[in-house]
Specification:
With about 200 residues, this protein is mostly helical. It is built from 7 helices and 4 strands; from the N terminus they run E-E-H-H-E-E-H-H-H-H-H. The strands form 2 sheets. Strands 1-2 form a two-stranded antiparallel sheet. Strands 3-4 form a two-stranded antiparallel sheet. The mean pLDDT is about 85.
């Protein structure tokens, strides 16, 4: 199917429908089984048909959330973390990159996940807890010079960035995608070459 992206680029996209065993590679207990939107992504203003309001506040108002830890009607969007839009150039590059990684990678790369790797790409993880910066890649170096999972200041030596750029068997994500997210690759390159939040 031909898809027109916001950039104006039209590409042919092959839709892949994985079976249950493939789905279970990512839809795991660690990720809460759902790979959908997180509250950090939804915690922003949205133009609804009748009003503009915070999405979380609106969804709570219409009863879409089941919140066991708070009394009914006491949900406060302002107390929730708000992830910046990765494409928002007015936000800090570190926050944008971490938002991108959290939305696209942390479903599998988080504590308790079954990847066999001790990487934490959740938005809340401090840099030292990510276990990526300067850490030798346990799942292959991809032939990079002086490789690390993330090599601050050097995207070309960062396996995470290199995997994002590929469509071969070393690609991340390993399934469910048949094209390279050029905007995401550019964002993570900029972040890593700027020190990757250090």
């Amino acid at each position: 199917r031909r898809v027109l992206f916001r950039s104006g680029q039209a590409v042919d996209v092959v839709w892949e429908y994985p079976g249950p065993s493939s789905c279970n590679q990512c839809h795991t207990p660690a990720a809460g089984y759902s790979l959908g939107l997180r509250t950090g992504q939804l915690n922003r203003e949205h133009d609804f048909p009748l009003a503009t309001d915070n999405q979380l506040r609106t969804y709570e108002h219409v009863g879409l959330f089941e919140i066991d830890s708070l009394p009914a009607g006491d949900f406060d969007a302002l107390t929730q973390v708000a992830w910046p839009e990765p494409g928002d150039s007015s936000a800090a590059i570190n926050d944008r990159a971490r938002s991108y990684l959290a939305a696209n990678c942390a479903n599998c790369h988080r504590p308790g996940a079954a990847t066999g790797l001790d990487i934490d790409l959740t938005y809340e993880a401090p840099v030292w807890a990510m276990n990526t910066h300067g850490v030798f890649p346990a799942a292959g170096t991809l032939g990079l010079f002086n490789p690390a999972r993330i090599q601050p200041w050097v995207a070309a030596s960062s396996v995470l960035w290199e995997r994002m750029r590929r469509l071969d068997e070393n690609r991340m994500p390993p399934l469910g995608s048949n094209h390279v997210d050029l905007g995401g690759v550019a964002l993570i390159e900029l972040w890593i070459n700027g020190g990757a939040g250090q």
